Amino acid sequence: MENRVLPLSGIHNFRDYGGYRARGGTLRTGHLWRSGHHFDATPDDLEAVHRIGIARVIDLRGDSERAQFPCLRHEEWAGQVVFHPGETAGDHGKAVHDEAAAGVRTADDARYAMVKLYDKLPFRPVLVGTFKLYLQTLAADHGPSLLHCFAGKDRTGVGAAIVHRLLGVHADDVMADYLLTNTAGNSEARIAAAATNVRASFGPKMTDDALRTIMSVQPEFLDSAFAAMEREHGRFEAYAEAVLGADAALVARLEERLVV
């Protein structure tokens, strides 16, 4: 699992989420990448990312986040950034984990808040709009893509898991890829970097364990998102088609392009 992680200094949680067994074969490697934002990317980071040849970046952040934390790109990069305009987090300029941190004091508070957050993520209009563009982008033959949000764990985690589920990746592998956030690269640096914003808003009111829970991923978080999809639509596939436009034709195009 760790071999799929690209170790970088200023971009956290950068990794390949291909390579898993899927329906009819194996997901291609080197074509599906995910990460946190690139606001703090170093020149060496940008060079390493440039060598991958990413053609499309799907940015799950909101407009305010993009304005406050503009991503750095290699000077020779000529790809396209894809997003639906608007806000994907409730508090403008903040990531969704910042939003969940409101009122949190203990680790139990944090777990409850994150489960509640994930219950709503699959239905946020602007996030849904970008998820639709994400699937359409993957279904077209553009080349390698990168999916990211702020920390690369919540909105990105749900997005990557949606693609895995659509392509028949085993539930254990879907969860394993999601949980890899907790150990991918320098997880302590990732927590410290994102915690700055959380501490700025909530400071000493939040315990260290609560902060770590907010900045981690846990199985019950992702389970909450898929349970919400099934609660509203009966089956994940029905949610994907009705909400994300992932009908049989689009899924077939995803399989043709991404499964070998």
UniProtKB/TrEMBL annotation:
Domain of life, source organism: Bacteria
MF annotations from Gene Ontology: phosphoprotein phosphatase activity
Record-linked PROSITE patterns: TYR_PHOSPHATASE_1
Gene3D superfamilies: Protein tyrosine phosphatase superfamily (3.90.190.10)
InterPro entries listed in its UniProt record: Prot-tyrosine_phosphatase-like (IPR029021), Tyr/Ser_Pase_IphP-type (IPR026893), Tyr_Pase_AS (IPR016130)
A Pfam family matched in the record: Y_phosphatase3
Family: Belongs to the protein-tyrosine phosphatase family.
Protein name from the UniProt record: Protein-tyrosine-phosphatase
Source organism of this protein record: Novosphingobium sediminis
